[in-house]
Amino acid sequence: MSKPSKYKIAAVTMLRDDLFFLKIWLEYYGEMLGRENCYIVNHGHTPEVAEMAKGCNIIGIPGDHHKNFDMKRWRLLNNIVQGLNAYHDHVIVGDVDELVVLDPELGSLPAFLSKQKQRQVITPLGLEVIHRLDIEEKPIENKVLGPRRHVRIAPHYSKPCIISAGVKIARGGHFTQYEKINAPEGLYLFHLKFCDFAEYTRAMDRRNAITEEIGATKKEAAIGGHWFADARGEDREVFETMGKFEMKEGFDVSRYRQAMIDSFEPRGDTGFYHFERPDYEVQFMLPERFAGVF
After folding, report:
1. Which position has the higher pLDDT, 194 or 227?
2. What DSSP string runs through 185-234?
3. What angle do CA 195, 200, 203 make, to 5 degrees?
4. Rounded to an integer, what distance in angstroms lies between the CA atom of residue 129 and that of residue 220?
5. Mean pLDDT rounded to a whole number for the chain
6. How many CA within 13 A on the CB side of residue 77?
7. How would you class 6 by CB atoms within 10 Å of its CB: exposed for 0-12, middle for 13-18, buried for 19 or more?
8. CA max distance for the chain
9. Residue 49: pLDDT above 60?
10. pLDDT value at position 1?
11. Residue 277 DSSP label
12. Alpha-carbon span 78 to 182, nearest angstrom
């Protein structure tokens, strides 16, 4: 049995059958935080999930497809996060294809978070890992960063996902009711949906099948339109379009983080707070120090 982590930091996710991303999530958070601090909601009691996640805290729930499933999912995650906050210094919550990463030159994520005050919400800058089909031919076998080096700025995934305050998280994890923004330099949320073309097509096939089985409209399902076949588009074209985004020199992304801070404001009368999330059609190559982080 491995030695328990000295940090009281938890990671929470929920999935049905995204085993490709679960493997990455487990290797990253499991090794860094200790599996005893990883909490996985196994939607559908999937045996493969239970086997892969041994040593983690697994919560199995029925897997029946139903309308409003994303709304119900985040209701569950909200309550889990608030419960865990009573016992942990910080709780990281997000989808299984999302990883919070600290720039390696700044040290380790657990050590960094242990120095942050509690009763707050921390928002990393969102980075979308892109599989550049034109130049990245190697498959992902062990680590993602190495075979994949390109990212685009993704404000939609700049999520307030590190929670130590008693606040409500909005559906999708995009907003909270915390009235301040804390977006430290060097802290990122890597979104892996587009990190591998073959895995993307398989994942989209599964999502399209679920929404077709439910028979719900986009509004009834309360989830992103990409789950629906009619909004999917042509897969290869999606990747090729991102690959043509303007390539920026270096890795200075401070202006995009500052834009989040400068535009932070109440989200109408909802009680939530947000910032502007423009579509930046730019990409960066990650510095070599990120290779092998996950």
Report:
1. 194
2. TTEEEEE-TTS-HHHHHHHHHHHHHHHHHHT--HHHHTS-GGGSGGGT--
3. 135
4. 30
5. 92
6. 31
7. exposed
8. 50
9. yes
10. 53
11. -
12. 20
The token pair that represents 213 in the structure block: 């089985």
Give 25-32's long-range contacts (Cβ < 8 A, gap of 24+): 25/96, 25/97, 25/99, 26/52, 26/53, 26/56, 27/294, 28/99, 28/293, 28/294, 29/92, 29/99, 30/55, 30/56, 32/108, 32/109, 32/110
92 CB contacts (<8 Å, ≥6 apart)? 9, 10, 11, 12, 29, 100, 161, 162, 163
Q: Residue 284 CA to chain centroid, in angstroms?
A: 19
Mean pLDDT, residues 191-208 taken together? 90
**DSSP H or E segment with residue 91:** strand 90-93
- Angle, in degrees to the nearest 10, between helices 235-243 and 197-214: 130
| DSSP 8-state symbol, 65 | -
pTM of the full structure: 0.91
Work out the average pLDDT over 162-167. Answer: 97
Burial class for 216, CB neighbours closer than 10 Å (0-12, 13-18, 19+): buried
- Topology of domain 9-290 in CATH is Spore Coat Polysaccharide Biosynthesis Protein SpsA; Chain A (3.90.550)
pLDDT mean over 148-160? 98
Euclidean distance between CA atoms 98 and 87, whole angstroms: 23
Average pLDDT over residues 272-289: 98
